[in-house]
Amino acid sequence: MKYINSDLLDQVSKKAIENSRKRMNYNFHANGAEVLQRMLNAIEPDTYLPPHRHPEKVEIFLLLRGKVKTLFFNDSGEIIEVRELNPINGEYGVEIPAGIWHTILVEESGSVIYEIKEGPYVPNVGVEFASWAPESSKKDICESYLANLRKRILSLSKK
Protein backbone atom coordinates (compact mmCIF):
# COMPACT_ATOMS: atom_id res chain seq x y z
CA MET A 1 0.00 0.00 0.00
CA LYS A 2 1.09 3.53 -0.72
CA TYR A 3 -0.54 6.26 1.32
CA ILE A 4 -0.77 9.95 0.58
CA ASN A 5 -0.83 11.92 3.83
CA SER A 6 0.35 15.24 5.24
CA ASP A 7 3.70 13.76 6.32
CA LEU A 8 4.47 12.69 2.74
CA LEU A 9 3.31 16.05 1.33
CA ASP A 10 5.51 17.86 3.87
CA GLN A 11 8.55 15.72 2.97
CA VAL A 12 8.17 16.31 -0.76
CA SER A 13 7.44 20.04 -0.25
CA LYS A 14 10.58 20.42 1.87
CA LYS A 15 12.63 18.90 -0.96
CA ALA A 16 10.98 21.26 -3.47
CA ILE A 17 11.89 24.28 -1.35
CA GLU A 18 15.50 23.09 -1.18
CA ASN A 19 15.67 22.28 -4.92
CA SER A 20 17.02 24.99 -7.24
CA ARG A 21 14.10 24.40 -9.63
CA LYS A 22 11.61 24.83 -6.73
CA ARG A 23 9.82 21.58 -7.48
CA MET A 24 10.15 17.90 -6.65
CA ASN A 25 8.46 14.72 -7.85
CA TYR A 26 7.59 11.70 -5.77
CA ASN A 27 6.82 8.80 -8.09
CA PHE A 28 4.36 6.05 -7.24
CA HIS A 29 5.12 4.15 -10.44
CA ALA A 30 8.13 1.85 -10.25
CA ASN A 31 9.68 2.95 -13.54
CA GLY A 32 9.09 4.80 -16.79
CA ALA A 33 7.87 1.68 -18.55
CA GLU A 34 4.62 1.50 -16.57
CA VAL A 35 1.54 2.33 -18.64
CA LEU A 36 0.15 4.60 -15.92
CA GLN A 37 2.52 7.25 -14.56
CA ARG A 38 1.45 8.53 -11.11
CA MET A 39 3.32 11.08 -9.06
CA LEU A 40 3.19 13.89 -6.57
CA ASN A 41 4.57 17.20 -7.81
CA ALA A 42 5.48 19.56 -4.98
CA ILE A 43 5.78 22.99 -6.55
CA GLU A 44 6.78 26.36 -5.15
CA PRO A 45 5.85 29.86 -6.38
CA ASP A 46 9.20 30.51 -8.09
CA THR A 47 9.13 27.38 -10.23
CA TYR A 48 8.88 27.67 -14.00
CA LEU A 49 7.02 24.95 -15.88
CA PRO A 50 7.47 25.73 -19.58
CA PRO A 51 4.22 25.79 -21.54
CA HIS A 52 3.87 22.46 -23.29
CA ARG A 53 1.43 19.96 -24.69
CA HIS A 54 1.17 16.21 -24.99
CA PRO A 55 0.07 15.56 -28.59
CA GLU A 56 -1.33 12.09 -27.93
CA LYS A 57 -1.88 11.80 -24.18
CA VAL A 58 -4.28 13.09 -21.55
CA GLU A 59 -2.84 14.60 -18.38
CA ILE A 60 -4.69 14.90 -15.07
CA PHE A 61 -3.82 17.23 -12.19
CA LEU A 62 -5.47 16.92 -8.79
CA LEU A 63 -4.40 19.64 -6.36
CA LEU A 64 -4.03 18.12 -2.90
CA ARG A 65 -3.09 21.37 -1.18
CA GLY A 66 -2.13 24.92 -2.00
CA LYS A 67 -3.24 27.18 -4.80
CA VAL A 68 -2.23 27.21 -8.47
CA LYS A 69 -3.46 28.78 -11.67
CA THR A 70 -3.73 26.58 -14.73
CA LEU A 71 -3.19 28.45 -17.99
CA PHE A 72 -4.21 27.27 -21.42
CA PHE A 73 -2.92 28.80 -24.65
CA ASN A 74 -3.65 28.81 -28.36
CA ASP A 75 -0.96 27.95 -30.90
CA SER A 76 0.28 31.58 -30.90
CA GLY A 77 0.86 31.67 -27.15
CA GLU A 78 -2.18 33.79 -26.30
CA ILE A 79 -3.89 32.83 -23.06
CA ILE A 80 -7.30 31.35 -23.85
CA GLU A 81 -8.29 30.26 -20.36
CA VAL A 82 -7.12 30.65 -16.77
CA ARG A 83 -8.52 28.57 -13.94
CA GLU A 84 -7.51 28.74 -10.31
CA LEU A 85 -7.28 25.41 -8.52
CA ASN A 86 -7.78 25.67 -4.78
CA PRO A 87 -9.21 22.76 -2.77
CA ILE A 88 -10.46 25.15 -0.08
CA ASN A 89 -12.72 26.77 -2.71
CA GLY A 90 -13.84 23.43 -4.16
CA GLU A 91 -11.63 23.62 -7.28
CA TYR A 92 -9.66 20.36 -7.17
CA GLY A 93 -8.19 19.57 -10.55
CA VAL A 94 -8.30 19.43 -14.28
CA GLU A 95 -8.15 16.80 -17.00
CA ILE A 96 -6.21 18.23 -19.92
CA PRO A 97 -7.02 16.70 -23.31
CA ALA A 98 -4.21 15.73 -25.66
CA GLY A 99 -2.82 18.57 -27.75
CA ILE A 100 -3.68 21.48 -25.41
CA TRP A 101 -0.92 23.97 -24.57
CA HIS A 102 -0.74 24.47 -20.81
CA THR A 103 1.31 25.49 -17.80
CA ILE A 104 0.86 26.19 -14.10
CA LEU A 105 1.58 29.28 -12.04
CA VAL A 106 2.04 28.44 -8.38
CA GLU A 107 0.30 30.88 -6.05
CA GLU A 108 1.02 29.34 -2.65
CA SER A 109 4.05 27.73 -1.05
CA GLY A 110 3.55 24.07 -0.18
CA SER A 111 1.33 23.36 -3.19
CA VAL A 112 1.24 19.69 -4.17
CA ILE A 113 -0.35 18.15 -7.25
CA TYR A 114 -1.14 14.48 -7.81
CA GLU A 115 -0.44 13.96 -11.50
CA ILE A 116 -1.58 11.09 -13.68
CA LYS A 117 -0.39 10.51 -17.25
CA GLU A 118 -0.38 7.65 -19.67
CA GLY A 119 2.99 5.93 -19.96
CA PRO A 120 5.46 4.80 -20.82
CA TYR A 121 7.64 7.76 -19.89
CA VAL A 122 10.53 8.46 -22.23
CA PRO A 123 12.37 11.75 -21.60
CA ASN A 124 11.50 14.40 -24.22
CA VAL A 125 9.16 12.04 -26.10
CA GLY A 126 5.42 12.63 -26.09
CA VAL A 127 5.81 16.25 -25.03
CA GLU A 128 6.18 19.36 -27.16
CA PHE A 129 7.49 22.58 -25.61
CA ALA A 130 6.11 25.86 -26.91
CA SER A 131 8.46 27.73 -29.25
CA TRP A 132 6.94 31.03 -28.05
CA ALA A 133 8.05 30.49 -24.42
CA PRO A 134 11.58 30.44 -22.98
CA GLU A 135 13.50 27.27 -22.23
CA SER A 136 13.75 26.49 -18.53
CA SER A 137 17.57 26.81 -18.61
CA LYS A 138 17.37 30.58 -19.16
CA LYS A 139 16.60 31.68 -15.59
CA ASP A 140 16.43 35.48 -16.04
CA ILE A 141 14.27 35.19 -19.15
CA CYS A 142 11.99 32.68 -17.39
CA GLU A 143 11.50 35.03 -14.43
CA SER A 144 10.58 37.84 -16.82
CA TYR A 145 8.21 35.55 -18.73
CA LEU A 146 6.47 34.48 -15.48
CA ALA A 147 6.05 38.12 -14.44
CA ASN A 148 4.60 38.89 -17.87
CA LEU A 149 2.15 35.98 -17.60
CA ARG A 150 0.95 37.28 -14.24
CA LYS A 151 0.40 40.75 -15.75
CA ARG A 152 -1.51 39.24 -18.68
CA ILE A 153 -3.74 37.32 -16.28
CA LEU A 154 -4.47 40.51 -14.33
CA SER A 155 -5.40 42.38 -17.49
CA LEU A 156 -7.66 39.48 -18.57
CA SER A 157 -9.47 39.51 -15.23
CA LYS A 158 -10.21 43.24 -15.60
CA LYS A 159 -12.03 42.73 -18.92
Detailed description of the structure:
The chain has a single domain, classed as Sandwich (Jelly Rolls). It is globular. A five-stranded antiparallel β-sheet has the order 1-2-9-4-7. The protein has a three-stranded antiparallel β-sheet with strand order 6-5-8, with helices on one face. The protein has 159 residues and is α+β, with helices and mostly antiparallel strands. The protein is built from two helices and ten strands, in the order H-E-E-E-E-E-E-E-E-E-E-H.
Question: What key attributes describe this structure?
Answer:
Jelly Rolls, five-stranded antiparallel β-sheet, three-stranded antiparallel β-sheet, 2 helices, alpha+beta, 159 residues, globular, single chain
Task: Summarize it.
The chain is α+β, with helices and mostly antiparallel strands.
- Mean pLDDT over the full residue set: 94
Helix content: 10-25%
Strand content: 25-35%
- The beta-strand count equals 10
Q: How many separate structural domains? A: 1
Please trace the helix and strand order, writing H or E for each element. HEEEEEEEEEEH
Q: Give the name of the CATH architecture.
A: Sandwich
CATH class: Mainly Beta
CATH superfamily: Jelly Rolls
Structure annotation, total helices:
2
Radius of gyration: 15 Å
- The stretches of 5 or more residues where confidence is low (pLDDT under 50) are none
Neighbour order of strands in the largest sheet: 1-2-9-4-7
CATH fold category name? Jelly Rolls
- Euclidean distance between termini CA atoms: 48 Å
Shape: globular
In terms of structural class, how would the helical and strand content be classed?
alpha+beta
The major sheet is characterized as: 5 strands, antiparallel
